[in-house]
Amino acid sequence: MTMQIELRILRYDPERDTRPHEESYQVETGPMDRVLDLLHQVKYEQDGTLTFRRSCGHGVCGSDAMLINGRNRLACKIRVDQLRARRITVAPLPGLPVVKDLVVDMEGFFAKFRSVRPYLISDRPLPERERRQTQHDRARFDDTTKCILCAACTTSCPSFWAQPSYVGPAAIVNAHRFIFDDRDEAAEERLEILADRDGVWRCRTIFNCTDACPRGIHITQAILEVSSAIVESRA
Ligand code: FES
């Protein structure tokens, strides 16, 4: 059974508009449609200038995070029926500069990600085959390997809105992934980076990040584990 939905999208074209404004579209939705399907419907059938990012369409690439009915979510993962509303509002992720319509400038976000050195660092001689790890040691950081860098967490964080220099939940999650990896040797260096005034201490355990994460990562828990590791490293 199909249903008529009003889709209200915050539009902004820097070449035409002085400020963002809402535009309303009537769309037809089927039982399994996701918000991404509605955005495609508008783009293909009503207004080809509507601009948004998407790639995999299945919650893997992290490119279509946006503010949907007041919450950061992936447009490809949230089904219209889950929203239980005849009117759906869509806006770009909060707190990042808007490039056009639903596309935000992610460069500052990725710079923070890079600042925590999110890759394996080790001076140990290369083994003949892979660097082996027990299942127990692998499980220590399993949760934080799930991050897809969609920025839903960082841009839902009031501490980030108040202080955009805060490194943010996503960067801390990706630091956690290597800090607790026993094959890595740069944990101390990452803890030092995150002990900065724009590091973990800006977290106020508000849990918005955990609520926003489309992968279900226990982000606030990960931040607390990194904070504890900093305290322990200085004891
Ligand atoms: S399009 Fe890849 S996560 Fe949604």
Outline of the structure:
The protein is α+β, with helices and mostly antiparallel strands.
Question: What does the model show?
Answer:
By secondary structure, this protein is α+β, with helices and mostly antiparallel strands. The protein is 31% helix and 15% strand. The protein has 9 helices and 7 strands. It has helices spanning 35-45, 80-83, 107-115, 135-139, 158-162, 168-179, 187-194, 208-212, 219-233, and strands at 3-11, 21-29, 65-68, 71-74, 87-91, 98-100, 103-104. The strands form 2 sheets. Strands 2-1-5-3-4 form a 5-stranded mixed beta sheet, covered by helices on one side. A hairpin with a 2-residue loop joins strand 3 and strand 4 (71-74). Helix 3 (107-115) packs parallel to helix 6 (168-179). It binds FE2/S2 (inorganic) cluster.
SSE-based structural type: alpha+beta
The average pLDDT score comes to 97
Shape: elongated
Q: Provide the helix percentage.
A: 25-40%
**Weakly predicted, low-confidence segments:** none
Bound molecules: FE2/S2 (inorganic) cluster
Number of strands: 7
Alpha-carbon Rg, integer: 20 Å
What fraction of the residues are assigned to beta strands by DSSP? 15-25%
The termini sit apart by 63 Å
Strand order across the largest sheet: 2-1-5-3-4
Instruction: Characterize the biggest β-sheet.
Output: 5 strands, mixed
Order of helical and strand elements = EEHEEHEEEHHHHHHH
Count the helices. How many?
9
